[in-house]
Amino acid sequence: MKKYGLIGRKLGHSLSQELFETQGFKDASYGLYEMESLDGLRQWVEQEHINGFNVTIPYKQEILPLLDAVDDMAAEIGAVNCVSVEEGRLTGHNTDAPAFKATFVEPFHEKALLLGTGGAARAVAYALRQLGVDYVFVSRHPKRATAKPVIGYDEITPQYSVIINATPVGMYPDIESTPINLSSLTSHLSPCLVYDLIYNPSTTLLMRQAEALGTRVKNGLDMLCRQAELSWRIWGL
Ligand code: NAP
């Protein structure tokens, strides 16, 4: 039996195990492994006989120095969401970026507002560069942020045709939160598309506010499925 799984700090929101189990892979299981820290990551891989795993919030960047190798795309992004294990050797990959790219319908937007500066935001930024879409990260701490270009939430101006939420704000169980209050920003911000990477709940408060303004919305479910398929391919399933 081959063993796969997802590591992250809190995994109550995750659909990854259900998604894996609907595939009917032979002799393969997928577990959810909540970890308070990445201390002991290698012991976990060895003791559990893990063949590959996905990485989620908040470990996509922190895991890099713990790996034996990182592929070129993940190295350029600076974040890993998929790890393959071959004879005890851990190699990092990024399937979030191609998954976002494949699911970013109508990528003709001129300028994107990218909320967050973590692992997912960096993968989205990589995909946007490939698509030729200009973007700016939005951070709570723009002066400290290493992701560039970056502005603070109080510096948001009207020119953005798409808003992408790559923060966990609004995710289960904290479903009445939103990273930006679109209703109060409408006097100067009216995007054509709000793409929220969150998929649980399927409609976030940010998406509800956008819909009330007549803005098209998309949640993170397609991206989740796509990044999972790409991970399974990397693992040879
Ligand atoms: P992460 O590495 O921890 O980064 C999250 C970023 O969001 C942080 O860097 C932070 O940026 C910002 N942030 C965190 N808490 C915040 C708060 N309370 N208010 C405002 N901003 C906050 O997490 P991640 O792995 O990038 O994941 C981010 C979200 O994307 C999660 O909800 C995750 O489930 C989702 N995601 C979905 C998919 C999918 O396939 N659908 C794939 C990847 C990720 P600043 O400190 O700069 O503000």
Key features of this structure:
globular, Rossmann fold, six-stranded parallel sheet, six-stranded mixed sheet, alpha/beta, 12 strands, 2 domains
Give an overview in words.
This protein has helices spanning 16-21, 41-48, 72-77, 96-103, 119-131, 182-185, 205-212, 221-234, and strands spanning 2-8, 28-34, 50-55, 69-70, 82-86, 89-93, 111-115, 134-139, 150-152, 162-165, 193-196, 216-218. With 237 residues, it is α/β, with parallel strands linked by helices. It has 2 domains: 2-95 and 223-235, Rossmann fold, CATH 3.40.50; 98-220, NAD(P)-binding Rossmann-like Domain (Rossmann fold, 3-Layer(aba) Sandwich). It has a 6-stranded mixed beta sheet with strand order 2-1-3-5-6-4. A 6-stranded parallel beta sheet has the order 9-8-7-10-11-12, with helices on both faces. Helix 4 packs across helix 5 (119-131). It starts with a strand and ends with a helix. The structure holds NADP nicotinamide-adenine-dinucleotide phosphate. NADP nicotinamide-adenine-dinucleotide phosphate (NAP) binds at residues 56-58, 60, 96, 116-121, 139-141, 145, 166-169, 171, 179, 197-199, 220, 223-224, 227.
Structural class based on helices, strands and sheet pairing: alpha/beta
What do we call the CATH homologous superfamily of the largest domain? Answer: NAD(P)-binding Rossmann-like Domain
Beta-strand portion reads 15-25%
Major sheet size, sense and barrel closure: 6 strands, mixed
CATH topology descriptor of the largest domain: Rossmann fold
Secondary-structure arrangement, i.e. CATH architecture of the largest domain: 3-Layer(aba) Sandwich
Secondary structure: number of strands: 12
What Rg is obtained from the alpha carbons, in whole angstroms?
Answer: 18 Å
Low-confidence segments, ≥5 residues, pLDDT <50?
none
Helix and strand run: EHEHEEHEEHEHEEEHEHEH
Calculate the mean pLDDT score and round it. 94
The end-to-end distance, rounded to whole angstroms, is: 12 Å
Fraction of helical residues: 25-40%
Overall 3D shape? globular
- Which molecules are bound besides the chains? NADP nicotinamide-adenine-dinucleotide phosphate
With helices defined by DSSP (H or I, 4 residues minimum), what is the helix count? 8
Instruction: Give the spatial strand order of the biggest sheet.
Output: 2-1-3-5-6-4
